[in-house]
Amino acid sequence: MRARWIAAAFAVGLGACGRAAPADGADGKAAAATGAGIGASGAAPAAAAPGIPAKVAQYTTVRLTADLSGLTARERQMIPLLIDAAREMDTIYWREAYGSRDSLLATITDSATRRYAEINYGPWDRVANDSPFVAGVGPKPAGAGFYPVGVTAEEIQSAPPASGLRDQYTIVRRDSGGKLTAVPYHVAFPEPARRAAAKLRDAAKLADDAGLRRYLGLRATALETDRYKESDLAWLDMKQNTLDIVVGPIESYEDKLIGVKTAHEAYVLIKDRAWSDRLARYAAMLPALQRGLPVADEFKRETPGTDSDLNAYDAVFYAGQANAGSKTIAINLPNDEDVQLRKGTRRLQLKNAMRAKFDRILEPIAKTFIATDQQQHITFDAFFENTMFHEVAHGLGIKGTINGKGKVREALKERASALEEEKADVLGLYMVATLNRQGVLGSEDVMNNYVTFLAGIIRSVRFGASDAHGKANMATFTFFEKQGAFTRDSASGTYRVDAAKMRRAVDALSEHILRLQGTGNYEQTAAFLDEAGRVSPALQRDLERLRTANIPVDIVFEQGPAVLGL
Q1: Strand pairing partners for 347?
Q2: CA 105 – CA 43 distance, rounded (Å)
Q3: What pLDDT digit, counting tens, does each position of 172-213 carry?
Q4: What one-character-per-residue DSSP string does 156-167 give?
Q5: Cis omega (within 30 of 0) on the bond before 148?
């Protein structure tokens, strides 16, 4: 799971500086053979739609760099190989999110529209509820490119498990007779999977760390077979590596039909050992924090894995879903519940991307929306802690329902991601407050976390209701507002946090979410998110002030070996 958070240079494509993302190439034939592609019909217009240049200008460009001075010569040789493997995720993700990248971009001659399609990996605006911005393109299918056009959730959910239609690593197509069939990812996308695997194996030959070398080899095999558990376990086992890559089909945000299909993405990372050492002590605290959750014992009976670890990284490359629209600043993986219970998870804080968002987006938002005498509580340390404990909190709570409905994400279907993100937000605040009272976080004032969190909510709801994190933050905003955790001054249009009421609201919302998850109550979850997850007219007017103030919505990267000086 992720905590997600551009006047862009039109000539810089997705991928390395000045280098476009991979073309469909040979894989276009394989995808066509399985019926892939949801945007192939009709041609996009050449002219820019009104407002497109302004949409592009919502994003501010960040050079994704890092200090490489501590790397060995072999590690420096590995980075371009890992980036090449990551680029292949772009090729696959375009087909999962839209269809043929080349077919879309070839018909768009306007540079602004083309650039915005590259940022969004398709013709739908990811920070405006997936609204189409290319004329002639209809609404985005709920199932993106994972399912045939027109298929219903009922058709997929009623299929027998052995059909593979609900498997997280398959594309669903109709055969010549109209029957739904499941095509494994490695069959649907053979060439990019093969190329990525080859690059990972080449990088493994240069890896001095045995754990990293083993993981890269197993991950290469996973890309070619769609069997990921062994590589997930190997990834958690490696502890001494400086370089890392998260690569493959991971998150299910793109699948809004039944919330199961995972999309391809990648991050190439360099561990910051100094910051990582500061974070390492928190993993051992998870069992005690689980026992203290403000909910009945039956909803916290699971024991989180204690092999989890916390580390800080500088990201040097994003690809696929990770690079689409708003950018991730922290990760909690693997998502496999069995692996989580057996080994725990790894929480990765992407420090350089986080800092860029704090400096360029969060601080300007706070100056606009937070009461003047509370702006002193907006700090990067609080932003880092809130983000970090959001990821830690994914490991708390409950993974399996208490009433025989199976795993939470199966019971809550396409609603599971948004509620899980909201759970991570609110339990992250619960953890911050608890550890603050215990003196574990030092002298940091918990008000810093509360006020910075409120500014962060306002930042995140700009992503719109189509984003799981945006919907989750909007639902939290609505709940906290009703609880009096903050108030809005109508004269100044600024917000003020009430610390005591915020703490009570955190406990109340924690209990509400954990009950929804533990009982697997789909209907109540849907009602809660639909009601509380809507942006109110008053907040919409406030968000419009951010637009007129030209505060960026998010960042886009200039990235690749050339940017790193390799």
Answers
A1: 310, 332
A2: 10
A3: 999 999 999 999 999 999 999 999 999 999 999 999 999 999
A4: HHTS-GGG-TT-
A5: no
